[in-house]
Design a protein that fits this description.
This protein is α/β, with parallel strands linked by helices and 647 residues long. It is built from 10 helices and 47 strands. The strands form 4 sheets. The chain has a 28-stranded mixed β-sheet that branches. It has an 11-stranded parallel β-sheet with strand order 7-10-13-16-21-25-29-33-37-40-46, with no helix packed on it. The two termini are 36 Å apart.
Length: 647
Amino acid sequence: MKKIYTLTLMIILLLITGVLGEAENNNGSVSRRDAFIKALTGIKMAYSEVTLDFIDKPDEFRLNIIDHCLKNPLEITDTLENITNFLTERPNGDLDLLLRCYRLLDFPTKKPEIAKESRDYPWAGVVSLPNKIKTSLNLIYDSFERSEKDLEEVFAKIDSFQLDSLYRFSPSLLLENEGQFDKRQESTLEELDDYAQEAAFLTNRIFSIISSVERSELTRISLDIFYSTLQAKSALEGLSVGESFSQNGTIEHPGVEGDVLFFESTRFGLVVVGGPQKTIYRVPAAIIIDLGGDDEYYYNAGGTVDSMNFAVALDLSGNDLYKSTRNFAFGAGHLGAGILIDVNGQDIYKTQNLALGSAVLGTGILLDYQGADCYYSSIASQGSGFAGCGILADMEGMDYYRAQLKSQGFGFVAGLGLLLDQSGNDAYLIQPAFSDESRQDQYFISMSHGFGYGTRPDYSGGIGFLLDQNGDDRYLSDIFGQGAGYWFALGALIDQNGNDSYTAFQFAQGSGSYFGGGILIDEDGSDSYLSRGVSQGCGHEQGLGYLLDKNGDDNYVIWDYSQGAGNANGIGIFVDEQGDDGYLVKKDQNSQGYGNFRREYGSIGIFLDLRGHDIYSGRGKNSSWWSAGKYGIAIDFPAKLEVSKKE
C-alpha cells in the first residue's frame, strides 16, 4: 500500500513539474515544438492561440505565403526551411530557381516549351562564326521574337499614357529616399505637406496602373527568355576559344572596342559577339555573347536600359569589369526581362540603382558561377524585386557585397528579391547613406539583408530573401535588415553554415513590425549577434519577429526589446537549440521573454534555450525559467521549476 501511495505521489509531482521540468529526451535535448508547448502552458496559452490571424480584408497584392506565416508564427521556421530547400534543390537546374520564385509570388508556372524556329537570321551567312555560337544567338533571338508578340497582351488593358507613366515613374517608388533628406531639412511645414500629398498621389496612380497589367503573362515571357538563355549557354559548352578564332581577326564597331567577332543592329537592339581577347562595350546591346578575355562593360550587359524590354548577356570567362551609372544595368528588368550570366572569372560590378539582379514589373537575373567577386551598388539592387522578381545568385567564391538601401534581398509590393550565395567566406555591407531622421537621425536606414516592405496602409509588401549556404560570413547593416519585415511583407536571412557575425542597430536580426514578418535562421556555426534593440526575435506593432540559431556556441548582445520580445501586440520569438551561449542584455526588464499589454490585448514574447551551459548578464540563469509581462516567458532547459510557482 505504501508503495502504491508513493508511486501515485510521484506521478502527481511529475504532472505538476513536467511542464517546465526536465523536459529532455534521450539525447539530452527537447524538441522545438515541445519547448513551445511547455512555454505556452506557463503563460496559460495554447499552441493554436499564437497567431496574427485577425486581418479583415487583404489588398490585391497580398501574397499567400505571407498570410500563412503570419497566421502560423510558431511554424514559420519550418516554412522558411522548406522554402530554402525548394530554392536550393533544383532538379531542372537553374531554371527551377526562377520557376520556384514565381510560385512564391502566387503565379502558376511551368517549364517553357521552346519550338524550333526557322528564319533567316542576320548571322546565318557569317562563315567565321561556329555553329555553336549561331545556335546560341538563334535561341535568344527567337525568345525575343515570341516575347515581343506576347508583350502586347501584358499591357492590353492600359493606354499609351499609362504605359509611359510606368516607364517614367514606377522606379521612383523605390528611389524616393534618394536626395529627399536634404530637401526635407530645407522645407517648411507646408512644403512638407505638399511633398507628402504629391508622393501619395503618385504612389496610388502607379499601383492603380500596375493592377491592370497582366503580370502572370509577364512572368511567362521572362521564363521563356531565361530558359532560352540557359539553353544558349549549354549550346556553347565545348567551344574552344583558344585557337578557333585566331585566323578570323576582329571587326570595328564605334561603340565596341577590341576583340569583336560579329555585330548587327536588329529591331531589338545591337547584337554583339566578343572574342576570346579583351573587349570593351560602351553602347547598349540587346544580346551579347563574349567568349573570353578581361572585358569591360560600361552600359547595360543584360539590362533593360533605355526602354529596352529584353536584354541578355553571356560572358564565358575572364576577370571582367561591369561599370555603369544607368538604372537597370547588368541583369535587371523593367517592364521586361534582363539576364546576365558570367560563367567564370573574378569580376567587379560597380553600379548605382536598380541593377545586379533587380526588377520593377519584370524580371532581372544575374548569375555568377565562379570566382571571387565584388558587387557595389546603391539603391534597390543585388536581389531586389518590385511587382516582379530580382535575383542575384553567386555560386562560388569569396565575395564582397556593398550597397546602400533596399538591397541584398529586398522585396517590395508584389515582388521578390533574392540574393543567393552558395559558398565562400562572404561580406555583406550596407553602407550608411540615408539617415533615419524621424527616429534616430545619427543612424541610417538599410532595408536590406532579407527585408520585406509594404506601403502602409494600402499595399501589402513582398518577400526579401538572403540565403547564404556556406562560409564564415559577415553581415553589417543599421536600421531594418538581417531578416526583417514591414507591413504585410516577409523578410528572411538564412545562413546554413559557418561562423558568422551579425551587426545591426535596430529593427533587425529577426524583427517584424506593423504586420510584417522578419526571421533570421542560422543553421550551424559559432556566431555573434550585436544590435541595439527591437531585434533578435522581436515583434513590434502587431508584427512577427523570430530568431532561430540551431547549433554552435553563440554570443548575443542587445540593449532592449530583443531576444523574444513582444511589443504593442507583436509576437517575438527567440530559440537557440544547441551550444554553450552567452547573453548580454542592457535592459533586461523588456527582453528575453517579454510581452506587454496594449489595446486591451496582449503581446507575446518567448525565449527558449534548449541545450548547453549558458551565461547570462541579466535576469536569466542556466537551467531556469523566468517571466516578464503578461504573456512573456523564458526557459533555459532543463528548467526545474514548477508551473504552479509562476505568478
